[in-house]
Amino acid sequence: MEFGPILRSLLRNKTGALLIALQIMVTLTVIVNAIYIIQERSQHMTKPSGLDEANITHILSIGYGESFNAEATTDNDLRVLRGMTGVADATVINAIPVSSSGSSNGYMVEPGRLELAVMAAQYRSDDHAISTMGLELIAGENFSPNEIVRHEPGTARTDTSVIVTRAMAEALYPDDAAETTIGRIFYAADDTALQIKGIVERLQVPWPSADFAENSVIYPEIELDGGNYYLVRHEPGYRDENLPRVEETLAAQNDTRVLRENQTFEQTRTITFIPDNAMTSILSIVVSILMFITGLGIVGLAVFTINRRRRQIGTRRALGAGHIQILRYFLVENFVISTVGVIFGAIMTVALNMFLVNNFDLAPLQWYFVPAGMAVLLVLGQLAVVGPAWRASRMSPATATRNI
Amino acid sequence: MFFYYIKLALLSYRRNPVLSSLMVLAIAVGIGAFMVVYTLTYIMGGDPIPQKSDQLYHIQFDYGDPAISAFEPPPQLTYRDAMAMLEAPFDYPRTATSRFSEAIEPPSRNIAPFFANGRGALSDFFTMFDVPFLYGGPWGAESDSNGEQVVVLSRDMNDRLFGGENSVGKNLDLGGLVFTIVGVLDEWQPIPKFYDLNNGQFNVSEEVYVPWHLIASQELRRSGNTNCWAPPEGDDFQAFLNAECAWIQYWVQLPDQNAFNEYQSFLNSYVEEQRAFGRMRVPVDKRLFNVIEWMEEQEALPNEIKVLTVLAGLLLAVCLLNTVGLLLAKFLGKSAELGVRQALGANKSSLMIQHTIETGVLGTIGGLLGLGFAVLGMEGVKILLSGDIPLDWLGIDMTMAMTTVGLAIISGVFAGLYPIWRTSRINPAIHLKTQ
Amino acid sequence: MLQMTNIGKTFLTGQVQTKALDQINLEVDEGEFVTITGPSGCGKTTFLNIAGLLENATAGQYLLDGEDVSRLGDRQRAKLRNQKIGFIFQSFNLMPDLNLFDNVDVPLRYRGLGRGERHQRIEEALTNVGLWSRRKHLPAQLSGGQQQRVAIARALAGSPRFLLADEPTGNLDSKTAAGVMSLLHEINAKGTTIIMVTHDPVLAQNSRRNIDILDGQIRDDARRNTAAVA
Lengths: 404, 435, 230
Ligand SMILES: Nc1ncnc2c1ncn2[C@@H]1O[C@H](COP(=O)(O)OP(=O)(O)O)[C@@H](O)[C@H]1O
Ligand SMILES: [Mg+2]
What we know:
The structure holds three protein chains of three kinds. By secondary structure, chain A is α+β, with helices and mostly antiparallel strands. Chain A has eleven helices and twelve strands. Chain A has helices at residues 3-12, 14-46, 70-83, 129-133, 166-172, 239-253, 265-272, 274-308, 310-318, 323-360, 369-393, and strands spanning 56-63, 87-93, 104-108, 118-125, 137-140, 149-151, 160-165, 185-188, 193-200, 216-223, 227-234, 257-264. In chain A, strand 8 and strand 9 form a beta hairpin. Chain B has two domains: 2-45 and 302-434, no CATH class; 56-297, no CATH class. The radius of gyration of chain B is 30 Å and the shape is elongated. Chain B starts with a helix and ends with a helix. At the A-B interface, helix 2, helix 8 and helix 10 of A face helix 2, helix 11 and helix 13 of B. The complex binds adenosine-5'-diphosphate (ADP) and magnesium ion.
C-alpha cells in the first residue's frame, strides 16, 4: 500500500482535501443528529396506546339549550350504539387517548404531600371502558355497573375506586410489583381517596410526548356536562362501514346537540402527529439532500482532480501501474480524506447534540449513532469516488507521452 | 465592461458545464432548503404587530405553591387577579381576555346548529391590537361594565351566517342567549396568535367576540388551558372563579417608559399585598412582558423550527463548502491559462473582477433555481402540516424571494473569495515550468 | 531482444483514419543504442509507445525477449513495463506533489519490493544522477536538466533491461543535454538496451544505429561503427 506517498501528496494539496473533509464533517454532524431526532420521533409515533386501534372510532357530542337532558341522552346514546350491528362495544369517556386533549392531575400516596405528586391523565368512563378500548386487565377487577357515578357539574366528588395502568401503579409504589397494589389507597391533589380496583397493562395519556405517557387513572364516572366522547369498538371489518352510521344514528336520536370529530383512531393518531410527521419528513429530506450534495461534491472534485492528473496517471501506468493500482490510489486517497472528516465530524456531532440537548430539550444521542454515521459516510465517499477512479484506471498509459 | 464580464462568465459556464452546473445546484439546494426553514422562522417567529409590539404588555404573576416541586408559574391570570387589574386606577387601554365555545343557532334554518370558538374581551381589545373592522365597530366601554349582550363576528363567521352582508344590528342566538351584532371583523389572523399563546399559537382566530364579563356572569363554556395549583374550595362555578386557577390572558398598553414604571410599581405593590395573604409565593424574574418578550418567554416559535434552522444553516454551510471546492477546482484548472495571461501582462485586479463577477453570475443562477426549490419546498411543508390549522399565511413573499436571490449571490461571491485569492497568487514562472 | 514484424498502427478519430505506423519490420539486439529520427508527426512516439507496451499495435507481431506481447492483457503488460522497461519522457512527467525520493519510489512500489530494497535502489539511482542530497525537494524546485535526471533515476531504479526515451533532451539546453546524453551512454555501456527518439541530427549521426522514419514507415536503418563520445 502506498499509504505514505498518498498522504504526503495530499498534504501538498491541502485545500481541496480539507474542503472535502470539512464537508464530510458537517454532513456527519447534521445527518447523525437528524437521524437521531427522526428515530426519537418515530418511537413516539409508534408507541402503542394499549387500545385495539384498528377497530376503534370516536365521536364528540355536545348538547345545548334548556331542553337538553344530559343523563337521558347519554343512556340512550350508549344503548343505541351498543345495539348497532357490527359494534362490539361502546363507552362514554371524557378524553380520547393520543388525541392531545384531556385533563391531568397529580396523585400522591399520602394526602396533602403535593411535593410527592405523580402526574397522570384522568379518564372518566364506565364499566365498558376496558372492553371497548380492548385493554388488558392484568390484576384486580373491572368496575361493576352499579359502581358508576353520575356526576353533575358543580357538585362534590366522593372517594371512589379506580383502575390504573401498570406504569401508574409502579410510579406510585416503585418498590412493589404492580399486581400487588390492588386494594391500596392513594390520593388526588384535592385529597380525594382513591382505591385501586384493577390494573391494566397499558393505556396512553392524551399527550404522547408527556413524560408520564402511560400514567393513567380511570374513574367510574360519567360526567353529565353535556359534552360526551363516545368511543366505539367495531367488529373486525365493520369500522369503515359503521363510521358514517354512528353519526347518522346519534343525530337521529336528538337534535339539541352538535356532533363533531367522527373519526377513526387512526385518524386521531395522524392528526396528533402532524408536527412530528412533518418534522421527520423534513429531516429525512435534509438528510437525503446532504448525502446527495456531499456525494456530488466528491464526484465533482474527483473528476476534476483526475482530469488535472491525467498525465500523472498515464505516467504511473507507463511505469507499471495496473488498473487496480490506479483505482486503489483514488479510493485510498478518498478514504484518508473521509477518515479525517468523520473523526472531526464525530466530535462536532456530539457538540451539536449537546447544544441541542441544552437548548431545545432533546434527549442526548445514543453513542452507536456516531460510529454508524461515520461508517455510512466512509462508504458514501468510496461510492462517490469509485466511478471517476474507475474511469481514471481505464486511461491509456500512452497519455504519458502525448502532450495534452 | 460589466456586460463583457457577464459574457465571459457565461462563456466560462459553457466551457465547464458539468462543474458549473454542480455549483449552481449546490447553491440552489442549499439556499432553497435554508430559505424554506428561514421563511418558517420569519413568519412564525416574526413580529405580529410591529407598530405596537413594544407598548403592549402581558402580565405574569408569581403563581404557584412552593411545595409542588418544579412548578412553573402559569402564564395566565386567575379571575380574582384579572378583576383586580381591571379595577386598577389607570387610563391605559387594557383587556382581560379568554376563550369559550358555545353553540350558535343560525338565523337560517338551512344551517344546522354548531359550536363556535369565541373570545371574551374588553372593548379596548380591538383598539389595542389594531383589529380591522369590515362593518360596524367595537362595542363601547359601557357595554363591558353593563354586561350587555353584544357580539362582534369574524369575517368568516359573517360569511357563513349572513352570506357576507352587513349584519350589524341583527341578532344572534349564542349559547341560548340573544346577542346584538355590533361589528364584523375583516380578515384578522396574527401569526403567531400573540395575544393568546396558551391555546395553539397558530390556531385560527376566534369566530365570535363578546364582552368578557359575560363569561363569568352567564357561565359561558370556557375553553382553553386552565391551570390550578390548589383545589377550589367548593364545587360550584363561584368556587372555581375564586380558586387559584389561571385561565385569563391580561394585556395592557403602556405608551412610554413613565407609564411602564408607574404600572410596574403598581404591580409590585399588588404582589406584596397578595403575599401578605399567603398568595404569590413562587417569585418570577419579570412581571411585564412586551409582545416580543412574551413570545420568547412562551416559546412561541416551536423548538422544532429552531432545530431545523440550525440544521438548515449547516446544510447551507455544506453546500457552500462544496461550491468553494468546485470553484477552486475550476479556477485552478484555468491556472495555466491565467499564468500565461499574467506572463503576457494581464492586470491582476481585472482578473479578480472577472472572477468575482463569474461567481456572482453562478450565485444568481443558483439563487433563481433555489427560489424555485424554496417555493416547491414551501408547498411541501404545507402538505405536511395540513390538518385543522389554516396555512394560507405560509408562503414566500416578495421580501423573502429577494432575500433568497440576494443571499445566493452573496453566498456565491463569498464562496469565491478564497479560490479567487488563490488564483491571484499563482506564480506564472512556477506554472510555466511544471506545465 | 525486440522483434517487430509488419507492425502497423491506425488511429480512428471519428470517421478519420490516421495511419501512424505502417509495415514496420525491425529487430533490436541486447545492448544496442538505437536513435530514431524523423519529422514531427511521422510516428516516432507511436513507435515508442508500441515498443514500450503503452499502446497496442493494430497490425503485425511484436516479440519481446521472444515472447509475443501483442495479445497480453493489461495486467501482464503493466508487469512487463514495470520490470523490463524504463521510460524517459520529453516533459519529464514527474509527480509534482511528490518529492524526488517518492518519485523514484513510484515504479518500485508497483513492483511490490520491500522497504529496505526500495530505499537502497532509490539511494543508488539518485546518487547515480547526483541528486541524492536533494531527495526531499519537489520537482518544481529543480531545473529542467535536474528534473530529467530524476526521471532517468526513476527509470533506472527498477534496473530495466530496456530503456525508452522520447526526446529526452528536447526541453533542455545543449550543455545540459550533453550531460543527460553522457548519462544515457554510461547506462548503455553497462548493458541496458536503449531506444531514443531525437530531433537532434548530431545525436543521430553519432549513434551506432539510427532509424529514420517517414510517414509511418522506416526509410533508413543505418548502422555505424563509430561509437559516440562518452
Ligand atoms: N491518439 C491519437 N489519435 C489519433 N491520431 C493520433 C493519436 N496519436 C497520434 N496520432 C497521429 O499519429 C501520427 C503520429 O504521431 P506521433 O507518433 O505522435 O508522431 P511524432 O512523435 O513522430 O511526432 C500523427 O499524425 C498524429 O496526429
Ligand atoms: Mg512525438
